[in-house]
Amino acid sequence: MGFNHFLKRTITKSQQCNRNWDLSKQVTDEDLETMKTAVTQCSSKQNRVFYKVVVIQDREKIEKIHAATDGFVYNFEDQATTTNSQVLAPTLFIFVKDRDENVIHRTNEEYLNGMDGGDTCDEDRSVGIAAGYLTLTSNLLGYESGCCQCFDSEEVGNILDTDSEVLLLMGIGHGDKTRNRREHHNDPTFIFPTLKKNITVEHA
After folding, report:
1. Per residue, what are the HEC states of 28-45?
2. Would residue 182 count as lying in a domain?
């Protein structure tokens, strides 16, 4: 099998959100350092800082954060929800808003509105790129991953003891190979739905 085939297979696998975990297997220290490189050395607009990353492997904290993710609506008629169990992975990466406001103004919007004005789209893009780097890196290293934006940001901030806005949660670990990846980690009767996407690529 050639490298390009391996890479395409890994990319395709990495798009899948993993919902349950083998907690007997941890992320190794060496792999964790590589993942930290992925989220800190990825591209951002003009090399600006828009976020910091908090890495948690403490099980008690992870469980508390998981409890703050009860927002996945699976029945819109009665608004029934469940938690997002991708965050129950052995390692949790948390992206927190953290602007570098000491650099010079680099856009007209920043000059007119201040460093925190008018550029949330750049913040979103930067976090998205970092999450993409982390997703691919972790999957190339043999792990599964799952992103979560459905959570109580204030409650997660309290757990982290920060007043800064929490932007994204991302679980990394080894999935439980005895279960469907979409099965809720704590509730085997619940299977998360999924969709297939078909993105067009055109040559112009």
Report:
1. CHHHHHHHHHHHHCCCCH
2. no
Which residue range(s) make up the domain with 45?
Answer: 3-18+25-173
Looking at 24-132, which runs of residues are DSSP E strands?
Answer: 51-56, 72-75, 80-82, 91-97
Going residue by residue through the chain (204 aa), what tens digit of pLDDT does each one get? Answer: 799 999 999 999 999 999 999 999 999 999 999 999 999 999 988 788 899 999 999 999 999 999 999 999 888 888 899 999 999 999 999 999 998 766 665 666 665 665 555 556 788 999 999 999 999 999 999 999 999 999 999 999 999 999 999 999 999 999 999 999 999 999 999 999 999 899 999 999
And the tokens for 119? 């550029």
User: CATH no. for residue 49?
Assistant: 3.40.109.10
Judge whether 14 and 78 are in contact, CB under 8 Å.
no
Number of domains in the chain: 1
Residue 160, domain member (yes or no): yes
